[in-house]
Design goal:
The structure is a single chain. With 145 residues, the protein is α/β, with parallel strands linked by helices. It is 15% helix and 26% strand. It is built from two helices and six strands. A four-stranded mixed sheet has the order 1-4-3-2. A hairpin with a 4-residue loop joins strand 3 and strand 4 (67-75).
Length: 145
């Protein structure tokens, strides 16, 4: 299999690009996640890509053509919103809920954007770089108290 092609996509064109790629044969959404670059804003990016705190990343697979593509989209901290891929790839539903839960990024037109890993009343988003570190004491069987 050839190398993965990486494309930087404008946030406004996110869903349209994925739909176009689906029509070209990239029919499988393999993953969707996010990255918080709060502590690495100087990361290397193409000159025409404006750096933002968050980046949403998805992988697509063309099984017949044996090709892969990774899309990377910058999402600003002040407006952490992006179009849902659910209308194009219904399998994105759980991935987007996880990104919402862990990073606080909202997916427009998502059918059920609720927490999936954390309790509904949980405060904050644990994978953000500015999320406070907590400590939960763990009791091990047979350990001295």
């Amino acid at each position: 299999m050839s190398a993965i092609e990486v494309r930087h996509v404008d946030r406004a064109e996110w869903r349209a690009n994925v739909a176009s790629l689906r029509d070209e044969g990239y029919v499988m959404l393999t993953d969707l996640t996010a990255v918080d670059y709060l502590t690495n804003m100087a990361r290397p990016l193409p000159a025409d890509v404006a750096r933002e705190r968050f980046e949403v990343v998805c992988g697509l697979l063309d099984m017949n053509g044996r090709r892969r593509v990774r899309l990377r989209t910058q999402v600003p901290e002040g407006d952490p919103t992006i179009a849902s891929l659910f209308p194009v790839h219904p399998g994105a539903e759980a991935f987007e809920r996880e990104v919402f839960d862990m990073f606080g990024i909202h997916f427009e037109d998502h059918p059920d954007l609720t927490r999936i890993l954390m309790p509904e009343d949980w405060e904050g988003h644990p994978l953000r770089k500015d999320y406070g570190l907590g400590r939960i004491p763990v009791q091990f069987k047979g350990a001295p108290r």
